[in-house]
Design goal:
This protein has 5 helices and 4 strands, in the order αβαβαβαβα. The chain is an alpha/beta fold. Strand 1, helix 2 and strand 2 form a beta-alpha-beta unit.
Length: 174
């Protein structure tokens, strides 16, 4: 069984890569993986670390979290890394867990509001993956609040800035 690409149907959202059980789907435009992770994920593939992991990593959807971050007038606190992805649905559990295993303390996934995803159900897929990551964290005795999922629009930079600040003061950066 091999996948049959359909270039006219592809929206380059990355969701197919995130659900491929064989991690066989590649993307030439994939964003870099979070720093210092060696986990092979469906979204980012193998990664060679180039810099130290930050205490807080934000995975931001390019249609919601990314624009909200750019619109905020507040500088991000020190110790926050941002990884912009095509769609929140493209963020694989292994990418999030790999970020934590590499030394990250908190992860924020900033995605579109439910039913407002430009790629159909990316926010819903991200929410399901966050719940699976939280279940894994609970199994290892770690607080599930280590990973936070925030649904927002590009017009909510203040809400995103407040969430980032809360993550940083609750044991993340600073």
């Amino acid at each position: 069984l091999s996948p049959i690409p359909r270039p006219l149907a592809c929206e380059a959202c990355g969701q197919c890569r995130a659900v491929c059980p064989a991690l066989a789907i590649q993307d030439r435009d994939a964003p870099p993986a979070p720093p210092r992770t060696r986990v092979k994920s469906a979204r980012t593939g193998p990664y060679t670390p180039t810099r130290d992991i930050q205490p807080v990593t934000i995975f931001a959807c390019r249609n919601s979290g990314g624009p909200a971050l750019r619109a905020t007038r507040e500088a991000l606190p020190q110790g926050v890394a941002v990884v912009e992805v095509p769609c929140g649905g493209a963020i694989h559990e292994l990418t999030v867990l790999g970020t934590l295993l590499a030394g990250g303390k908190r992860v924020l996934l900033a995605t579109c509001h439910p039913d407002a995803c430009a790629h159909h159900d990316g926010d819903h897929q991200c929410a399901l993956r966050v719940e699976r990551v939280r279940a894994t964290l609970r199994n290892f005795g770690l607080p599930p609040t280590t990973v936070v999922h925030l649904s927002l629009s590009p017009a909510e930079p203040a809400r995103l800035a407040a969430a980032v600040q809360a993550l940083c003061t609750e044991g993340g950066a600073q």
